[in-house]
Amino acid sequence: MEPRLVGPGPYRATRLWNEIIELFRAGMPLRKHRCRFKSYERCFKASEAVDCLHELLGSNQNFGPEVTRDQTIKLLKKFLKNHVIEDIKGRWGKEDFEDDGHLYRFPPSSPLKSYPKKLSCGKEVIKFPDWNEPKAGTSQEHIPVKSVTMNSEMWYKRHSIAIGEVPACKLVFRRELTQTNIEEIWKSMTLSRLQKVLGLDSLDEVLDTKLVNSKHIVQNVYNVSKQGIVTLEDKSKELPHWILSAMKCLANWPSCSDLKQPTYSGFERDVFKTIVDYFGQMKEPLLTFHFFDIFVSVLGLLQKPSKAVDALQISCLLLPPENRKRLQLLVRMMARISLNQDLPPLSESVRTRTLMVQAFSRCILCSKDEIDLDELLAAKLVSFLMDNYQDILSVPSALKSSIEDRVAHLQTVQIKYAGADSDTTLPPPSFCHQISTDEFEYQRATGSQEPLAALLEEIVMNKEISVKDKKKKLKQFQKSYPEVYRVRFPTPETEAMLFPEKTKQKPPILMWALKKPFQPFHRTRSFRM
């Protein structure tokens, strides 16, 4: 089974989880091992599993070579806890997997995650005031009109109206937009732009738009300092002064302005540990649980860095202002520390950049669901953030200009001709974009194969049907969809493991069977003494 690029879209984390399980089951070598004077067939050592999965993740373009061995061990712990693997005695459910010589095996069928059935979030219709009707007490005659110097072309246009060459028209007086109207316009156009960049037909499956606060978007755009950092209206949500001082100390090392120079060896490591402990005790990541799916979808665009930057730039506008500010300060500090050659090493065994990713990735992005690849996905996202934080965490100027133009257009007095729409000068956002032939073929294949794979897994895991009916259904499925069936059961051995043969017990040998055949009873004459 060849790994494929999982692009943006609904349930990307689930799709990645299922694909890694299928690749691991198909690629892990199984052989006979001995343990405590007993032989076990079709199993593997823990260290062999780490080697195989680490190589598999490193060569997979969804994760890449930056995946560490420690991250691979953490993933295998999750596999053991969720019965993707089990020990040779059939035990699972705990995260006690270690990189050692313990023996493990695959159960007859590793559980794939099912795709959740989300309720479709209806698209919110923004209700604007009826601008075609003037305010009460306002007439078109009292609208101030700027005097215009008449030339021949303008005279012809006006004369043509009189003779009927141009349809009749009227002035449309716009009502003043409220702050709520403007915020809803920002929300609608921001989400439309994000949907277009991601190339999705709808955001319903990756984002609950009702959880997007329009006030947060406007505050993140306009309440910023000269350095582009968000300024908070509620000062109680600011970072503590001592944490800011610690972050500035390491970010500007060795020129610390508000701290005295260290007086002992290892001072910088103690400061770093203080920062890690503070961000590590947060109950929710900076990118929030609600937006986990949307940021995981953006990771599918990392093969196209410019698109990924655009998508992350827009997605970060949806964050609460206090989260966005903390993210800006934290990622900027991480990037500066990674590039600072004057800062002493903060770890003896790990490179500074890798240490930054390992220390802060979970406080930036993680999932509520423990059956997820959140550590690997978070590490990939944080690495990309550190490399492009100046662009990603700035206000998207093109989006800002287009929305401001739209608001100005809706507030402008305009001429409306009979039978024409006054808003046609600014067409609604388009959701179509051209894709390559390869992308089309991939979307067509995955769009049909994923539901079929889920159907096959449902047949496999169904315990209510008899073995005979299950074999019959699987045979029909194999005949109709051989490619999907081959992915789930790449070898005859994997198929055979689903129906383990029951060992027939031989009946016990009866004692009378060892004796001579039964002899008929012969009457004999009794002798009396």
Outline the secondary-structure elements:
Elements: H1 12-27, E1 31-35, E2 38-45, H2 46-59, H3 69-81, E3 86-87, E4 103-105, H4 152-162, E5 169-172, H5 179-198, H6 214-222, H7 241-251, H8 267-280, H9 292-298, H10 305-315, H11 321-339, H12 352-364, H13 374-392, H14 397-410, E6 414-417, H15 437-461, H16 467-480, H17 482-488, H18 492-496
Antiparallel strand pairs: 1-2, 2-4, 3-4, 5-6
Bin the helical content. Answer: 40-55%
Shape: globular
The named CATH superfamily of the domain at 181-402: Rho GTPase activation protein
CATH topology of the domain at 181-402: Phosphatidylinositol 3-kinase, Chain A
Radius of gyration, rounded?
34 Å
Supply the CATH class of the domain at 181-402: Mainly Alpha
Instruction: Please give the oligomerization state of what you see.
Output: single chain
Determine the mean pLDDT: 80
Strand content: under 5%
Low-confidence sequence ranges: 119-148
**Number of H/I helices:** 18
Structural class: mainly alpha
Could you tell me the number of beta strands?
A: 6
Query: What's the story with the biggest beta sheet?
Result: 4 strands, antiparallel
Lateral strand order in the biggest sheet: 1-2-4-3
Query: Ends: how far apart?
Result: 94 Å
Q: What is the correct CATH architecture of the domain at 181-402?
A: Orthogonal Bundle
